[in-house]
Amino acid sequence: MCGIVGYIGKREIKSRLIEGLRELEYRGYDSAGIAVMLDGRIESFKAVGKLSNLEEKTKDFATNGSGIGIGHTRWATHGKPTELNAHPHMGEYSYVVHNGIIENYREIKEMLEERGVTFLSQTDTEVIVHLFEIEAECRDDLFEAFKATIDQLDGAYAVLLITQKAPGTIFFARKGSPMIIGRSGSGEIFFASSDAPLIGEADEAAYMEDGTVGFVTSETLYTEPEPLSFVPLQGDKMTAQKGGFRFFMEKEIYEQYEVMSDTMIGRVLDEDIVFEEIDDEFVDGITRIKICACGTSYHAALTASYLFERLSKIPVNVEIASEFRYKEPLLTDDTLFIVISQSGETADTLEALRMAKEAGLKTLAVCNVDNSSIVRMADATILTRAGIEKGVASTKAFATQVMVLWMLSLYFAKRRRSMEREAIKDELRFMSYVPKVLQKSLEVHEKCKRLSKRYLHGHGFFFIGRDIFYPLALEGALKLKEISYLHAEGYPAGEMKHGPIALADAELFTIALMPKTLLYDKTKSNVEELSARDSTILSISPEMFDLADDFILTHPHKHPMLEFFEMMIVEQLLSMEIAVRLGNDVDMPRNLAKSVTVE
Asked: Are strands 335-341 and 362-367 parallel, antiparallel or unpaired?
């Protein structure tokens, strides 16, 4: 959510900033802007909408020689998506970009207005630059003025500030919102909200901790409370490109069988499940599990609750992070607290994790991004190894989250002796089939493309399933909502008759998940009830269903999780193809952001 870039160097600054912002488009945004300082003078450009609009505005602007610049893609929180509300925000002689939320901005704004400051925007960010200039008038040292400014801010922020009083300097601070600084062998300095803009540009990077504040010039890097620690920057810029696919989402759906193998390497053995990230003593004394997550990660958590209770014989409670924060939860020290987040920066999940740690619980993160805030805060972390996911609607991150949780449920089963050795070996054998299942599942893509034209209208979709296929139904409905903007709901198949079936008619589309390995006859009965009320039925199953209006045949399997992953692919492809036919931006759906770093 929102993206920051910064640059110090001799190359053309505008291009560096805009290319960096392009690498952050996956985070979601509704406006963008840059500020460039050259020869002590700052030029600023802002535009609503896509980066192409900003490029058009800056087509006649170019730099030559050493200089500095900052840039930002904004996802509106305070104030509508307008040019005035876009970043960078300016004072009399300074500019600032900011991710996060300043919770006490109203109080600061009132104080500044009483001192004669005039505000141009509706944002919380603008208070930062005006507050800095007030502090700068009282001090000879601009870094002290910047620190005094940051000390007065409550909330979450990643801040870059430039000022004409220090023409070659970028001031920066980080609390609760990610920011990385990179440097190249030629002396260039880069700032970004994630690794993506740094790959191929910087040779090494430092991941700032909460509370970091500092400044940088072409000659000097200074931070408090302690120096930054740089590590080599791994990765290839091609991993962040579409690779011949129409959309990042499509590419990431097709990558799932490969990243699933990465997720399993070194962990799924022939006769054992191993997590080097967890000490043997880590699970001692644990008698229950609480899992906390948001959105797609919440659906992975619900899936895990079935697996843990079935395989590990341990009670599991699943919480929506945004609700958990305010319900005054009862937390006991025999509970393992698991949080799930693709980005590792999800604000509600991060706060839930903080609450669990303050209560003294053991905490475990399932995350895709190393060095993220959640990873650094949790006692232990299992990385999903999904790689960069640029599509806002999560695909491969969800798949790898579910796989990690399935593996973790087996790990607990082994430790708790809730399964016989041979049963664990069988489970591991089926687990090893998943990458091939995912690869073979892609064969239905053309069928999904052809069927999609029949599901563009109507008054809504029901995705229904039982057991682990209920959270998969929720996930299928979410995918369709996110990128097609059509109304969709996920329901337990057995719950339809308790109210929702009142909506059934020919314009209601039912996507029925009908696995043969789990409660097939029960689900079939529920689908028949909907068919009798004239609902249009799309059956996803390895067996033909004579009452279905349409069907997508999946492969026969001997384990529910293999059917789960194949049906997951079908849902993703179908949702994508419906969205494509509707002419929507598949990778960056409206109103959504990839990394949700605000409440």
From this structure: parallel
CA distances from 126 to 37, 179, 449, 556 (A): 19, 19, 47, 58
Sheet containing 221-224, strands listed edge to edge, beginning at the edge strand earlier in sequence:
89-90, 94-102, 155-163, 170-175, 212-216, 221-224
User: Residue by residue, what is the 3-state secondary structure of 46-105?
Assistant: EEECCHHHHHHHCCCCCCCCCEEEEEEEECCCCCCCCCCCCCCEECCCEEEEEEEEECCH
Per residue in 452-510, pLDDT tens? 999 998 889 999 999 999 999 999 999 999 999 999 999 999 888 888 788 888 788 99
Q: Annotated active-site positions, please?
A: 2, 594
CATH topology assigned to domain 443-583: Rossmann fold (3.40.50)
Q: Return the bridge partners of 161, or none.
A: 96, 171
Question: What φ, ψ does residue 53 adopt, rounded to 5°?
Answer: -70, -40
Right CATH for 3-238 from 3.50.50.60, 3.40.605.10, 3.20.20.80, 3.60.20.10: 3.60.20.10
For residue 245, give the amino acid letter: F
Q: Please tell me the distance from the alpha carbon of residue 153 to that of residue 100, in angstroms, as a whole number.
A: 11
Per-residue pLDDT of 247-276, as tens digits, reads: 999 999 999 998 998 899 889 988 899 898
Instruction: Tell me the sheet residues that pair with 98.
Output: 159
Which uninterrupted H or E stretch holds 45? strand 41-48
In 421-561 the beta strands, taken as DSSP E runs, fall at 460-465, 488-492, 508-513, 536-541, 550-553
Q: What is the pTM of this model?
A: 0.74
Which amino acid is residue 195, in one-letter code? D
Query: Which among 344, 324, 343 is positioned nearest to 335, based on CA atoms?
Result: 324
**Residue among 285, 262, 170 nearest 216 (CA):** 170
Which pair of structure tokens corresponds to residue 203?
């040779």
CATH number of the structural domain 242-432: 3.40.50.10490
